[in-house]
Structures are given as C-alpha cells and as structure tokens.
Design brief:
This protein is an alpha+beta fold and 951 residues long. The chain is built from 18 helices and 48 strands.
C-alpha cells in the first residue's frame, strides 16, 4: 500500500477493517444517501454508485435477453439440489456477463423466493419452490450457493431471500395481517429462511408487504431476534418496493414518514426501495428522523456497514482480485443445454395408463394432434428475462416427430365484433410497423414501460377483422389479430393490435364482455370493458378507444368455435395432446390471487371435445399452480410449470420417451375448492393445511410423480445414535428404461403430546438408476430434525418416544417403514403459577387472531373482527391451590375461564381502555388445583396479552 492509498483499498487487510476505514471517511450526508436503493457515487473517494436489487428468480430478469429457465415452482418440482445449484451458477454468470456491458445490471440479486406454497390460490405460487419447508430450504440453498459462487472471499452475486415473512396472499397484501402462532412461526414459516441462511449462502432478506401478528414486516422484531442470530455475517435487509411509504400511506401504522423510516432502520432495514430511482424523499425522511432524535449516527452506520460488507464481498474494491470480474459466459451452449435439462427434470407424470411414451405406439406413421390454448405458446412471467431462444410444445413435437406427423388446433374462438352502426371493428394495415418485444431493451422498472403508439388504432369497416378470442377464466379474455398481435390500450386510450403478448404491471391486453340489453337489432349486445383502465370500448371518429362515456354496444359474431376445430383435429389422430394451463400475467399473478382451482371453462370445453373425439387423449397442464381437474377418463396426465426457453423441446422428449419423467409435485394438488381453507388463514396446524396436516384425499399428493420405469425399495436399516439418526436403504430399477427416481424419507411422531404432522419430509435424493441396477442411499439426520416448538418453554424440544420412518416415492406412496426410539426431554405441565401464560402460546384456537402487543414487540390475542374467540391451553398445572387470576388486556369486553371444557368458573369484565396499546390489569377470584386444560373465551374487541395466577 502506497502512502496515497487509503486502507479501504488495501486488499491485505480484513474486510472489517477496510469497512471501518471507508465508513470513517464518509460524511453523514454521504452515508444517509447510501441507504436508498440507488446510492449515488462518492466521487471524492472514488466510490462508485451502487444499487440493490436485480431480479433473477429463474434467469436474469427485466434487463433484456437472457437464458430463461423454468419457473421457480418448476425448479422445485425437479427435487434436484445439484441441478438447481448449476442453474444458480448459470444465472449469476450471466448476471456478471450482462453487467460487463450494461452497468444498470446489479449484482445484489433479489432471489430466490422462499415463501412456502401454503395455499395454491396464492397469485405468486409460481415464485416459490414448495409447500414444505425442508424441500424449500434445500432448493433455495442450492440456488443461492450457485448464485454466490464457491470462492472463499468473493461472491459472484449477492442473493437476497424474499419475502420475509408469512406472505401468501396478494389480496390486501399491503394491509393484511398474517396471524401466525408460535409453532407455525418456528416450525413452518421461519424454517425455510433459517436453514438457507445458516448454510452461509445468503447476503440478506427482503421483508414482505404484509403484516405478521398485526405488525408490518418492515418493522418486525424477528429481523433482530431471529434472522441476525442465525449467522455471524452481516446480512443486508432490503425493503420491498414502496413498502417504506406503505407504513404511513396504506397501513397507517405510523403518523409520519420520519417515524416509520426510523422504526424500519432500527428494526433492521438497511436499504430503502421507494420512489424508483429518486432518492430525495427517503434521504429527507432519514435526515428528518436524525434531526428529531428518532435516529442516531450509529443507527445509520450500522446499516451502511452491512451494505458495504456486501459490496466488498462482490469485489467492488478489489477488481484485480475479483475472480468473477472478467466473466463473459452468456447464452452459451452449456447454458442452453442446462435450460433444456432443467425443463425436462421439472416435468411431472401424474397419471399414465400405458398411453405414454409415444414411441411405444405401433406403426411408423403415427399422427399426433397437439391442441389447446398453450400448444403453441412459450409463456413468460413477470420475473422472466426476454427470450433468446423459444420452444413451444408444437415446435418441440415438430422437431421430434416431424411436421408431417403433427396436426395442430389452437382452439380459440374466432369472432367478429359488430357495432351498433352495422360495421365491424377492424385492424388497419401497418405494413411498415416493426416487430417489438416488450422489455427487449431492458428496464430498471418494467412497470413503467408504455404501450406502443406508433401503430394505428382500430377503426370500423364493413368486413372487419376476425379476432382470436380466448377466455382465460372468470370472464377475462384476450383478443388477438390475425398477425399475432394482441389488442392493447396505450396511455392515449386508443385500442391497437400492438402487443406481442399480454403483460406489464397493469395488463393492458385483457377485456370483459358484459351483456347489455338493447331495444334495437342487437339481441346479442355486449359492452367491451377494458380491465386495465376499467373503461369501455367506444367508437370515435379518430378511432376505437376506451372512454368514460358513450360505450359502444357490440354484437359478438362467432365464426368458428374452438372446440369444433379441436374435435376435427383430434378425430383423425392416433393420439391427442391437449395443452392447457394459464397465462402467468392473467388471473393469478403478483397483485392478484386466484379465486378457484378449476380449469377455465374455455379450456375445459376443449379438453372435453378432444376426449370425446379421441379417447387416446393426454392432458398436459402447463401452469404456475395446481388445478383441480378430474383425470378419471384420461389415460395420461402431465404437469409442468412454464418451462422457460426449452419447454417445448423438453416436453416432446419426455412424451417420446427419450427422457423418463421424474419430476415430483412440490405441493399438494387438492381435489376441489372445498378442501381449501380461507386464503388468509395462516394456521397450517389448526386448519390442517398442506400435506403435513391435510386429512382429506388429495387429487395428487405431495411428492407424487410417475416414471416410465418401475422401482423397488428394500434393505431398510435405521439406527438412532447419540446425536443423529442413520438411515440406509436401496432403490432398484426393475423396469427396462434408464430413469431417475426421487427417494423420499419422512417421519411421524407415533404418540405426540401435541398435534404433529401426519408425516414430515426429512430428506430426499434424486438418483439415476440403470435397468436392473440398484443404488444404496444413506442419510444422516440430526436429532434436531425430530424436534418441535414447545410453546410451554419457548424452545425447540425433542420429545422422547417412538418415531416412524417412512421411505417411498411420495408422501402417500410409502414402500418401507421402520420405527426408532428417541430419548428427549419429557413433556411437563405448564407451570402457570410460576410464569403464567403468554396469550399467543395457545394449543388450540377458534375465531382468534394474534395482534401486536406494542408497535415494537410482543404479541396479544384478540377475536377476529372484534367478535368472539376461544383459546385452549393444554396441561396447565395450578398446583395445590390457585385462588386468583390476573390478566393484561386492552380494549373493551370480557373474558370467560373454564376448565376442561366445563362451565365458566371465572369472568373478567374489561373496562374500555384509551387505545389498543393501553393495557390494563384485571383481577378476579379463580379456584383450581392440579393439572387441567384451561379454556378462555374472549368476548368483544379485547386484546389479551398475558394471564397470571396466584395461590
């Protein structure tokens, strides 16, 4: 180091000393400015500008062309940790390569999403890996390990886990509170984050928009009490976009933005994503909080230090030592091959009565009909990059079997729209128009991308244009012109055939046809409502537009029904492949939950038409989430998430038998909507959610997936040691096809003292086994894998007793069983005389929700919607003589106490308190001895924080 070189530039010093030096050289104003997502350069020190946040969920997103891998839920369906690690490596490699030519590309990647897929109607189901915390953490750890790289000091990219915490609803997502009891918190929601952070592959987390137990995630005490205790390394906490402002503007949790920003920073948020690239408001709020004494310089320094720690790990200050600085690999043959491999491994064979593989069909002149709305589509989602390569199911089958052996029918309804004047909506010619793909040039915020205005708006004439109409469900439809462009509405309000696909933050390509009674000649009159603007289509002199008044009454003339073309095509084929599913931008996406598991009616009609015309019909569901569709009359059913750039090729290879399918369901497929709890019910234990607790019969169970081979399991050996459980078994391929098998190991507590999972995934492994060959699998499981969260003592506890080990091919397809006996800490009654009861530590509840005790920390319990609730606390030891009860409560109402479900023996009336956080103490007589179950009834809008007893 020369005399002119500051210590923070000295690569021989530890990062911590270098960060200390740089921090000391920054002015307070410079440090404050760094806390916005787009931190400015400090030119006097030669420190570059830095931004947090580069989307990279299944490929580099938003920044133009990149390799597109299967959706995250598809990667979860591979059950292949090593494959997903390689995908993460490829994504981070392309991130580096893209940054070398475009400095808008960031190295702090916001991926993966580890929210558990608790409820299949969640609009962002596609972003998660699984409903199971163990599988989710395994896949997330693999992906982040690939993103991070394997250098001991420098990282290829710095991954941030999304979205902390208990976030599974788009409905009211900025204001809804997830009520998460302690056991669900520790055994379920925190677990996926914890195991990935403990693996050392994570740079930080992003809090979610929602509240947990009445408190916004951006001021969650769990960031300090949980997250930062799991690792010694500095973790960067980045806010979600606009969430800092939400604390005041939508959640009304704080009165001023200065209070909200200060509370977020103190809770652990280190980087504020708000107001796009404009940092002025966040900087002003931070400076205001400092001036008001809400923050100190040390609070600012703590956040800046954590951000600088990430920047040093990314090699920003050591360009000559950064092993990833010269990365140029982009769209390489290896990446293209990996995209295909991932798409193949993500395909799940749900049912097969011998129809597949297609190469088993007799004769050489096989005719395949591929039909359906997604048969010639390669759909992207909000977090996809722009396709460089593209493969649809139709193209894949053409490539594999030859175009002369494949027939195609999309199944759209062909329609014309007739105006009240007797003319038809028409798309003008635009011969000089260029083809444009939305987002092809990249955008820091694709939500700001505007629709095209260089094309002429729709007009009317005597013949009109025949549109392809697709009803995606719930009456939401798209209209496509013959040249392939979708009708869309730009900022000027005109309707044009201008979009390559539906998309955007607010989709401008969806419409609703609303029946409209008319006294004229329009017996089939409709208003065409544009969903994105909420306005109706009208016809004006300067073109067709959406407007607040004078809606046009349109008559829908159907020139060809989709099911008719599908039936004709299917009837002449040897086998039919129906490709159904969703468009990831419509009816189930970020900001919008689904309303049903049912397949949209349009697609159900196509499936029924194909099946009626040809019983040799296979259904391929290409979707971001499960559907409930009856497979009884179908000889074969497959599911794949949207598989990225190689989806069609991969599907064709699996259908042909070139690859044996071995994907497994990462979440339960329920048989009907009636099996689902309320979307906002986060109590997976109480409402029996996911395969862990669900007691009904699923359509297809968690972990399910078939193969073209057959496998036998045997030679199970189990041993419980002092610190771990050892499990060994063999898997033998008894078929004639080389294939992968996904061996799954579950456990079940045989005689638990509290409600435990029906079975719980402990480990899995995907292995390739040749015909006739066997492979031995060995698992070493820590005893902590058998623990649960003991609400009595507020710790994880291993309960002594027998545990059943279940080995098989799914959560329900169990091939081997064994039982082990584990030592542990015995169950004891609740020592209520010594410690009382924290209200949230109930064993059972009905009608209750957990709320915030204060704005900073603590929980209380209240009746949902201020009505009534019942709480049960099992095994309370009242000693030789308990004589009184003391409760800490706020609100107004009453509490009723009973033992073992008997009559009320104590009632406490709660006088009105000034506000929800103004707790008071109420005491009354209460007589009890020995051990009983305590039942507490909450009546009215009361908040119960603690119950104490005295003798």
């Amino acid at each position: 180091m020369t005399a002119q070189t500051p210590p923070f530039r000295d690569s021989q010093l530890p990062f911590a000393k270098r960060i200390d030096d740089l921090l000391s050289r920054l002015t307070l104003e410079e440090r404050v400015a760094m806390l916005h997502q787009f931190g400015p350069a400090v030119e006097r020190l030669g420190v570059a500008a830095f931004r947090t946040g580069q989307e990279a969920l299944h490929g580099v997103a938003w920044m133009g062309p990149a390799t597109v891998f299967p959706q995250a839920v598809g990667l979860g369906a591979t059950w292949n940790d090593e494959l997903v690690r390689r995908v993460g490596e490829a994504v981070s490699t392309e991130t580096r390569a893209m940054r070398s030519r475009d400095d808008r590309v960031g190295l702090n990647v916001w991926a993966p999403t580890v929210n558990l897929l608790r409820h299949p109607l969640w609009g962002r189901n596609e972003e998660g890996y699984s409903e199971d915390p163990k599988l989710t953490s395994a896949i997330a750890t693999a992906y982040t390990r690939g993103l991070r790289g394997d250098h001991p000091a420098y990282w290829r990219t710095a991954p941030v886990l999304k979205h902390w915490l208990a976030h599974n609803n788009e409905t009211d997502r900025a204001t809804a509170s997830s009520s998460v009891r302690p056991r669900v918190l520790h055994e379920y929601d925190l677990r996926a984050f914890r195991e990935t952070v403990e693996a050392g592959t994570v740079a930080g987390v992003m809090p979610a928009y929602n509240l947990v137990n009445g408190r916004p995630n951006h001021v969650s005490p769990y960031l300090r009490e949980q997250l930062r205790t799991w690792t010694d390394q500095d973790l960067l906490v980045c806010s979600d976009a606009g969430a800092p402002s939400n604390l005041v503007d939508h959640e009304h949790y704080f009165d001023t933005h200065e209070e909200a920003t200060a509370a977020s920073l103190i809770a652990g948020v280190d980087s504020f994503t708000d107001h796009g690239t404009d940092s002025t408001q966040i900087v002003e709020r931070l400076q205001g909080a400092l001036n008001q004494g809400l923050l100190t310089e040390s609070d600012i320094d703590a956040a800046v230090r954590r951000q600088l720690a990430i920047r040093f790990r990314l090699g920003e200050f050591d360009p000559r030592l950064d092993p990833y600085a010269d990365t140029k690999d982009f769209d390489t043959p290896a990446h293209r091959s990996l995209a295909r491999e991932a798409a193949e491994q993500a395909i799940v064979l749900l049912k097969n009565d011998g129809l597949l593989p297609l190469t088993d069909l007799p004769g050489q002149d096989i005719r395949i009909a591929v039909v359906g709305l997604l048969a010639d589509e390669c759909k992207l989602d909000w977090y996809s990059g722009t396709l460089i390569h593209r493969s649809t199911p139709l193209e894949g089958l053409y490539e594999r079997f030859g175009a002369d052996h494949v027939d195609f029918a999309e199944g759209v309804d062909r329609v014309r729209l007739k105006t009240s004047a007797g003319t038809y909506l028409s798309v003008p010619r635009a011969d000089d128009a260029t083809d444009e793909v939305r987002g092809a040039e990249g955008a820091l915020d694709p939500a700001l991308l505007a629709g095209r205005t260089d094309l002429p708006p729709l007009t009317t004439d005597t013949t009109g244009t025949e549109f392809a109409l697709i009803d995606w469900g719930g009456g939401v439809l798209t209209l496509r012109a013959p040249d392939g462009r979708y009708l869309s509405v730009a900022d000027d309000g005109f309707v044009r055939a201008s979009a390559d696909q539906p998309g955007g933050w607010v989709v401008q390509e969806t419409f609703r046809l609303e029946p409209h009674a008319s006294h004229g000649s329009h017996e089939n009159g409709h208003l065409l409502k544009h969903v994105g603007t909420g306005r109706y289509v009208s016809v004006a002199a300067d073109g067709v537009k959406v407007a607040a008044e004078n809606p046009e009454i349109l008559e829908l003339e159907i020139t060809e029904r989709g099911e008719d073309t599908v039936a004709r095509t299917a009837a002449s084929a040897d086998v039919v492949i129906v490709v159904a599913g969703n468009d990831p931008h419509i009816n189930g996406r970020e900001t919008e939950d689904r309303t049903t598991l049912a397949l949209p009616a349009h697609q159900q009609r196509l499936l029924e038409a194909a099946r009626a015309a040809n019983p040799r019909t296979a259904l391929v569901i290409t979707s971001s989430y499960p559907y409930a569709t009856d497979p009884t009359d179908l000889p074969a059913v497959l599911w794949t998430a949207h598989g990225g750039q190689a989806a069609g090729t991969a599907l064709a290879r699996v259908l042909a038998g070139d690859v044996s399918p071995a994907g497994r369901l990462p979440q339960t497929w329920y048989a009907s909507d009636a099996d689902l709890p309320d979307l906002l019910d986060y109590d997976v234990i109480g409402s029996r959610q996911t395969y862990l607790y669900f007691e009904g019969t699923p359509l297809f169970p968690f972990g399910h997936g078939l193969s073209y081979a057959s496998f036998e399991y045997g030679d199970l050996v189990t041993h419980a040691g002092e610190n771990s459980v050892h499990v060994t078994f063999t898997v033998t391929n008894t078929g004639s096809t080389p294939a992968d098998e996904v061996a799954q190991l579950y456990s079940r507590a045989v005689a638990p003292s509290v409600s435990r999972p029906r079975r719980e995934l402990l480990a899995h492994r995907r292995v390739h086994v040749l015909p006739g060959a066997s492979t031995e699998l060995t698992f070493e499981l820590p005893l902590s894998a058998f623990e649960f969260w003991d609400v009595v003592h507020g710790i994880r506890r291993l309960e002594p007793g027998p545990y059943e080990l279940l080995v098989g091919a799914s959560s329900e397809d169990v091939r081997l069983r064994g039982t082990i006996e584990l030592d542990g800490t015995p169950t004891t009654p609740r020592p209520v005389l010594e410690h009382g009861l924290n209200a949230a530590d109930f064993d059972e509840q009905r009608g209750a929700e957990i709320v915030d005790r204060t704005k900073l920390s603590g929980d209380a319990v209240a009746p949902a919607h201020g009505k009534t609730a019942e709480l049960v606390y099992r095994g309370c030891d009242f000693g030789p003589a308990t004589r009184s009860v003391t409760v800490e409560v706020s609100g107004e109402g009453s509490l009723e106490l009973a033992l073992d479900g008997g009559p009320v023996i104590a009632r406490l009336d709660v006088p009105a308190t000034p506000g929800p956080y103004d707790f008071t103490t109420v005491v009354t007589e209460f007589g009890a001895t020995e051990v009983h179950d305590l039942h507490i009834g909450l009546r009215g809008p009361v908040r119960l924080a603690h119950v104490g007893f005295s003798g």
